Amino acid sequence: MALNYDYDESSETWPFFLLTILLMLLIPLTLMQCYKLIYSKSKKDTRNHEDDKYSELEALNDIDTPEEIIKFRSKYTSKSKLSCLFNWKNLFIVVGWAVVFYLVQRISNNDAIKQAAIGIFDPYDILGISSSSSDKDIKSAYRKLSIKFHPDKLSKDLSADERIVMEEKYVQITKAYEALTDETVRENYLKYGHPDGPQSTSHGIALPSFMVEGSSSPILIMFYISLLGIVLPYFVSKWWSKTQSYTRKGIHTKTASYFVDRLVNYKPSEVVTVDLIIKWLSHAEEFKQFYPSLTSKDFEELLHDHINRKSSNEKGPDRNIIKNRIVAKCHSLLLGLLDIAAGFRNTDVANVTLDTFKCIVQAIPSNPKAELLQLPNVDKEQFENGSLDDIFTIGKLFTFDDERIGKILGIKDEKLLKRTLTVASNIPHIRLLKADFVVPGETQVTPLSTPHISLKVLIRSAKHKIINTESFPESMLSEPQDFEHQRNPFSIIEEQPLIPYSYSPYFPVKRRSAWCCLIALQKDNKIIQTPAIINNLSFHNLSKSLDKREVKMAGKDIKGFIPEDWEIGTIKVPLGQPAPNQEGAVYFRIILKNTDYFGADLDFTMTMNVREYSEKDLQQMREESYNNDDEDSDVDESEEELEESDDEGSDSEYTDIDTDTEVEEDAVEDREIKNNLLFI
Amino acid sequence: MSSFNETFEDAFNTTSNGTYTNNTNGTNFNGTQFNQEPEMEEILKNVSFYTPIIYSAILLISLLLFASQYKKSQLKKRTELPSIFDENDARDLYFEIKSMDDVHEKVIKAALLNRGAEAIRRSLKMKELEPQIELIYKNGSVGEEYWQRFQNEMKLMEVEFKDCIQEAEALQPGWVQLFVGNAREICFNQAMQRRFDAIIKRKEVSIKEWDLKLDDNGMLIK
Amino acid sequence: MSSSTILYNPNSKQLSLPSDITDIPQENETLIINCEQINKLSTSLISESNPNFTPQPKEEASKLIKNLFETGLKQMKSNKLQEALKSISLAIEMQRRKRTPYEAFGIQLQELQLMLRQKIDLELLTGKYLDAVQDLEFLLGTGMLAPEVFIRLTDALLKLNQVHQAKVYCERGLSFAPNETKLKALNMECTRKIKEYNGDI
Question: Mutate which of C8, C32, C33, C34 to disrupt the B interface (most B C-beta within 10 Å)?
Fold first, then answer.
């Protein structure tokens, strides 16, 4: 209630003020750093565990990496462990805590603060009793103390100062007693915390007085002005312009605008090629920011040099370093472009963007034989001019014996060939075992429900004998039905390990691959949602030896194949929109493309049968709920049966349309023409 | 309010009566009141009656100036933003042909029909792209500036369309109705023609991409 | 665009572009296309006597195209495939040249699609699979999503050894006609060929 402001004369509040602010910053920051330290350690542990099986390829990756790239990596990417420990954040934490301890020390040594603490009135404390004491106890305590401290009973040889202290003490005791017995005083105590009624409060500014007085006050004013007028606006504007100049996908807005321009002006008559995507990439604002003196033509040339594995140094000084820097940046640019292309629903552009991704990661131009050219030590000329023209895949390559493979690829050195074969057998290939639309808690897709796509895949080596879905027991392909997985059907993804580092010796940065999942409607071949990115899949199977040149078949079964030894990967993709309102079949094209490896893709159609529960289904479900405990797989089987019968049901419908109503079809066609014209 | 006054008076009474005040409290309640008042009066005497008015006037005017200036610069920036489409060659060609001497009247008409067809193509394209651009803007895949450009384009498109119609009316009074219908057919036919003409180029690209070896008759060499 | 990009020939009433533009066609694509479009429109307008012309298709052109096309069909029946292909290609070329850009689009498109279907069959019969693929993709691009188109496209792509592309088109075709037996058979063929391609058989 005071009308003026005091400065902190006796330095009793500003240390508290500072302490609070410091702790507010320090505690969360310290916890965060500690968490990071522990978390990264534990992550490293699990990673090491997983990668042991895969480290062979990683070691080869290091061997095959050109020296220039190694230099580049050490210069631009890897941070030493020391720098991890001694960075600005940790420095702040250490200094911060030091200041905290100093302040605590200061506070505990400061008399004024102690005085203030004493000034707080606690009648029980003064009387030396506990707060739960009865009236009787209060009275007896008061009597004892008042006898001891009564001014009349004090000994005469006390000094004047001591006498005053004693007298004051007596007054306090009386007041304390009153506070606990007298009605009005007691009320005052309860209301204001003091028997005399409300105490005057002081509003102070928590600044030590030396900062305000005399010569230092202009400095303080300058400090305030610079803080509020310059520093704060500067940081706010910097932060704001930064959020404004980068999109949520982390690419520069100018780059994003350029990509959108290209997609808006994209002529549907044009074929999208890797070269076209590279041309688009070369206009990225990021490149211009790195090297303002170079033009997009230069960048395009550099990118082409990269995918053709050509040195660019003759074009100018440091061109190879420039090349590596812009190539490293392509990762985020390509993901940004993929996102925009999917936003424009353009399947072709999104598809070729992912092809470009592989080309840039493996430094190989788009080529039907790229899957084999991504292997190390391949003599390109001998391979391409070889007599065998129909080998395009690693899988095909592994149908020949090792010696023959060496001849095909033009590798004479046995050691080199062995390395090449190791890489070849460790490049992941993906085989689809099962694909379903799943509505959690339901057995089929009902109208307007929200299904997600659930894929069961087998990550395998091209060397392996092909394994069919039937070779795996049903239980391995179904999902755990416990509560946790019902509640969050996507938690199963997190349980899978991260995809290990890629074999990509020509990419400037060590990287992990990922699968991008594009989902398009077959009706118009347009993408319906933003691409899903899959980062978790186990590569455990790649170390298995089930060489197709060696294994023998026993009827339909593969000899020596134990399904339980193999890991089945799960990919789940949420759908961006609910199932359609009406019953019927909807066809989706699912494109699953790896960002790093050629030959590790899937492109297939999924049918979503939207159906209400029929009376029969409901009855079946009721029966099932009676004997629910028996089997889980039962549900799946009955579902499949139903799906099949449903297909047969629609059989007649389709033939009807095909034969009888051609006129109608024409009308539909005409409408479709008008719609599709925008493609042209 | 009343309770506040009561406590205030209470406080006043008790503190002035009480002997023992909190000794950490440097300033006394009464003292501050008495010290403050003469000072305040002094200040009030020195400050002219117009000071607050002048102060607020300056503040208001500077704010208004800033706002109008900012608006102007934003508007200028907006109009300087490029179109979301590439250069409109159809429109540029029309103006160029029109400005040339002794060009056959029907050539001008042809150029205008071509321009109208392009205007229709763009408006169709915009209609197709509108929900998609809206979506990527909402997703934050594209910046604020692009969204501004897109909004501009909507208006520019209308202007361009009106321009075409006015020009058509000027070239041949009463032609407008047929002009729009014809431009529409031309737009579609031209699109089809462009797609048809692209077949040759697409074939070349496919040969390169698929690494095909064909003979002169277009047959695959085994 | 600089002020004098185009040249006008008052005799032929045609526009042309200076050589510095036509020398780099890939960078001036839209400009070149626009010039062609205007030229075509000018030619059509100059031969048009009615100032209030309508999208009504021209009888004269229809007859010419029909005659050429029917010649092709006759040749096809008598098994002269190469000649038939030539005649039908000529019919298509005539249609593209004689029809004015403002004649009804719906009719022009149907006419072109009809002729292209014949042309594609002839291309497939004579082994010109890549040409067939291009023409089939044109049909798809203009909204003709009929099972026959997908069947032919899959077949042609398999012949060109583009197994993955073939499968994509085959499955798309099946999504329009799930019980089309030919497509089902082709789908199995695609799967088999992909297995062979990957060395899995």
Answer: C34
**pLDDT tens per residue across span A219-234:** 878 888 888 888 888 9
Nearest-by-CA chain B residue for C142: B192
Same domain as A494, residue A596: yes
What is residue A208's predicted lDDT score, i.e. its pLDDT? 66
Stretches where chain B sits below pLDDT 70 are 1-47, 222
- Cα separations (Å) of A207 from A18, A210, A219? 9, 8, 14
Whether A309 maps to a domain, the answer reads: no
Residues A106 and A127 in one domain: no
Please tell me the least confidently modeled range out of A97-106, A205-214, A522-531: A205-214
* Neighbors of chain C by Cβ distance (3+ pairs < 8 Å): A, B
Give DSSP secondary structure letters for A217-269.
HHHHHHHHHIIIIIIHHHHHHHHHHHHHHB-TTSSBHHHHHHHHHHHHT--TT
**Which positions in chain A touch C175 (Cβ < 8 Å)?**
522-523, 587, 605, 607
What per-residue confidence (pLDDT) applies to A625? 63
Q: Which domain holds residue A236?
A: 215-243
Residues 6+ apart with CB under 8 A from C49: none
Query: Do A576 and A443 meet the contact criterion of CB atoms below 8 Å apart?
Result: no
Q: Which residue among B92, B196, B217 sits closest to C138, beta carbon to beta carbon?
A: B196
CB-based contact B142 A256, cutoff 8 Å:
yes
* A17 & A164 share domain: no
Please tell me whether the interface predicted TM-score (ipTM) of this complex is above 0.90: yes
pTM: 0.78
> Which tens digits make up the pLDDT trace of B87-104?
899 999 999 999 988 888
Q: Collect all residues of chain B within an 8 Å Cβ-Cβ radius of residue C113.
A: none
B97 min Cα distance to partner chain C (Å)? 8
In a domain, A311, yes or no: no
- Chain C residues in contact with B196 by the CB 8 A cut-off are 96, 112, 138
**Which of C5, C13, C126 lies closest to B104 in CB terms?**
C13
Cα separation, A27 vs B142, in Å, equals 37
Positive/negative CA dihedral, C68, C72, C78, C80: positive
Q: What is the pLDDT of residues A605-623, one digit of tens each?
A: 999 999 988 888 888 877 7
Six-digit token pair at B20?
């023992």
Using CB atoms, which residue from C143, C171, C198 is nearest to A673? C143
Three-state DSSP at A460 gives strand
| Amino acid in position B158 | E
For chain B, what are the domain ranges?
Answer: 89-210
Using a CB–CB cutoff of 8 Å, tell me whether B26 touches chain A.
Answer: yes
Looking at residue C111, its amino acid is E
Q: How far is Cα A517 from Cα A532, in angstroms, rounded to an integer?
A: 5
Both A93 and A136 in one domain: the answer is: no
Number of domains in chain A: 4
One domain, residues A93 and A142: no
Output the domain CATH number for residue A127: 1.10.287.110
Separation CA A539–CA A560 (nearest Å):
20
Residue A119 has pLDDT above 80, yes or no: no
- CA dist., res. C134 & res. C136, Å (int): 5
Contacts of A261 in chain B (CB under 8 A): 84, 86
Residues A155 and A62 in one domain: no
pLDDT value of residue A624: 67
Binning pLDDT at 50, 70 and 90, where does residue A626 land?
A: low
Same domain, A570 and A601: yes
Give the integer Cα–Cα distance in Å for A288 and A333. Answer: 13
Inform me whether the pLDDT recorded for A634 exceeds 60: no
| Interchain CB distance below 8 Å, C55 and B185 | yes
- The predicted-structure confidence for B165-202, as pLDDT tens digits, reads as follows 999 999 989 888 889 999 999 999 999 999 999 999 99
